[in-house]
Amino acid sequence: MRYFEDIVIGDTATFGRYEVTREEVLEFAGKYDPQPFHLSDEAAAQTHFGKIAASGWHTCAMTMSMIVAHMKENPQAGLGAAGLDELRWLKPVYPGDVLRAEMLILDKRASVRRPGIGSLQTQTTTYNQHDEPVLRFISGTLIRCRPTD
Amino acid sequence: MRYFEDIVIGDTATFGRYEVTREEVLEFAGKYDPQPFHLSDEAAAQTHFGKIAASGWHTCAMTMSMIVAHMKENPQAGLGAAGLDELRWLKPVYPGDVLRAEMLILDKRASVRRPGIGSLQTQTTTYNQHDEPVLRFISGTLIRCRPTD
Questions:
Q1: Counting runs of H as helices and runs of E as strands, what totals does chain A give?
Q2: Would the CB atoms of A61 and B35 count as touching at under 8 Å?
């Protein structure tokens, strides 16, 4: 188990492989983001997407699934995320794309008010199979310090 | 159709109704965010959630579905979102909760480089049935100006 003390600013982890299927793009968009360019190639051809593209929220969800799988293999004493900053959808994600993710530790701070807890600032970037970044965001998460007793 | 010129800074739209079901919370988390506190009441009882809670990304997705439904009823010449800032998960969302959303126009600017296009900055807040904010984020979107010919 990795605790606050084990986290090194500047460290990068690379992980994940997520095959984006047309079926899943349509299912997610149909339920949560039914804009025409996420549901039909004809409608998408009229936009800068050119062809059917995944909902940006779906790209976030696929990225989260890679993060959770990575954390299961590399357990951390995490206490959840409070929020995100500077989230940018950098390129469209298309059916057939294969995604992977990179997580960079930007900063860590021990809590002054809550002894035993630290906060991490991490930057997550999702890439497609052409090594193009498609999504990037900064997240603030809490993590426990190593037990002292 | 509402164009850039029709958007008024400070305007607020209130919309949506989304019933959060246990089945959907489990389905989304199982696929995209399989952390124990999103999948089991026993695991959630050991955390600050207390009982099974929706993935934060699921709350985003449910909010997006309310936004898209609202935009279908109130069409805008929108050109999509580039990103989000200051996203905060403010309270847990539980099965049985009923969500609604509010969107506030924070700012609008005509593009200097791209005539005919404007950008909007909006703040979206999702509330539960107790009128507690559960999610808030700022988004930057593009919108067409009214055709002049």
A1: 4, 5
A2: no
Q: Say what the pTM is.
A: 0.96
Counting Cα atoms < 13 Å in the Cβ hemisphere of A140 gives 15
Q: Could you tell me if the ipTM is greater than 0.90?
A: yes
Give the domain ranges of chain A: 4-144
Q: Do A57 and B34 touch (CB under 8 A)?
A: no
pLDDT tens digit sequence for B67-126: 999 999 999 988 888 899 999 999 999 999 999 999 999 999 999 998 899 999 999 999
What is the C-alpha separation between B111 and B132, in angstroms, rounded?
A: 36
CA A148 from chain center: how many Å? 32
A-B Cβ pairs (cutoff 8 Å, strict): 72
Is the Cβ pair B68, A31 closer than 8 Å? no
d(CA A23, CA A37): 15
Measure Cα distances from A137 to A101, A103, A133, B55 in Å. 11, 10, 11, 17
Strand order in the sheet with A117-127: A12-19, A98-110, A117-127, A133-144, A78-89, B78-89, B133-144, B117-127, B98-110, B12-19
CATH architecture of A4-144: Roll (3.10)
> Quick check: A116 pLDDT over 80?
yes
What B10-13 contacts at long range (C-beta under 8 Å, 24+ apart), as own/partner pairs, is B10/B104, B10/B105, B11/B104, B11/B105, B12/B102, B12/B103, B12/B104, B12/B105, B13/B70, B13/B74, B13/B102, B13/B103
A65, A80, A83: residue with CB nearest B87: A83
* Partner residue facing A88 (CB), from B35, B83, B86: B83
